[in-house]
Protein 1
Amino acid sequence: MEIKEIESVVLTELYGKHGLDSLQVQNHVYGCFILMEDIAEGTVRLEEGKVVSDGYCFDLEGQFSEIGIRYGFIMDMSLEWNHYSVDYKTKWMEIFKELECSHNIERVELIQDALIAIVKANVGEEDAFLTSALEQGVLSREWQDKFIRLVRDKKKVIQLPKEEDKEEEDVKIVTNVGIARAQVEKLIQDKRVRGLRKTRRNRKGEIKRQISKTRRHVRV
């Protein structure tokens, strides 16, 4: 598959999206970066649409929407992405299957570079979550707060409480935000304590960008 094909579908998915919608796409794309590496490096195997390793099996074909919340830079159910196009899923599945056969790390790096350029050129500064994650290896406090605000605002829109229920609903929102903040902060703390894996490209030289630290290293 030509790299321009995955560039095109990612660009289409990003077009016109802002806030939480844009974040869902970016987190999913980042998750695909990490999954590409895992497959190419042989950390996991791809068998009949499933990602398999010792004691682990993930139905990639059936749970494609969960790649971001399993491998992305934010692991939160609010970022499960179900609104991708058929073309987007098809192109990524082609890439994963290709890498299962070739184990070509250089191919992974070329795809990452191309898609990072697409994201940087087409995502506004106010939504630049993936760029921040690449530069810092983890989301800063500022970007954590932006994520929490996006989730909180979405919940407010969905709930639309009646006036008499407003106080009770506000308490629920505050509680949920507190839980979300605690989860994000625990993830950051766990990563700082345990240490984080850089992608293979970054391990080859610090002159390259500080790209992902994977979720695999914070699993208990």
Protein 2
Amino acid sequence: MSGKQHVDFHRKILLRRRLMTAAKVSSGTAYVPFFGDGDVAADLYGGLTLYGADLDADRIATASARLPDADLRVADCDTWPGFAPTSPLAVGDFDAYSYPYESFRSAWEATEWADSVVLLFTDGQRQAIIRTGHWRHPDGTKMHTPGIAERRKPFNSYYAKLALPYVVETLSESGYRVTAKAFYLRSMQLYFGVAARR
């Protein structure tokens, strides 16, 4: 894989800083699948115990040189890479580009999470909705929305009616209450996150 990993890098950083400040997360443990070159992690998570994974071995090599204390692995990020964190996770940064929820579910179920957490998502499903009508609901259900007129509703309300409620409900089932949320759109791409406590 080659090419630029992030577009509007400053917006990604601001979104994450805002939620980490809201959750008062400045120490603890972070999990960053889809780690890439580690530029976001180097900017934001240097003070945290850091676990990360990516399918691209070259990018993991670059990130390992940048963050030598991080535990980084070449792995499929849709499944839990088998880390044994030394403390509960406080940050989960699921910067998947297309579909972050498989990775989120596997991490949420596989390991312990702190009482105060920040969860971040990069989601490209709005593009699939409007272009082809074949997309995946955040809960994993494969969807088909045939006509362009029918696609507009899930496309326009995706964050408020589908993505955010899915994350809020998943957290609620584990006893968490969302205390802050933030999002922005860049074209058809959705970037969002929540801070939550239990």
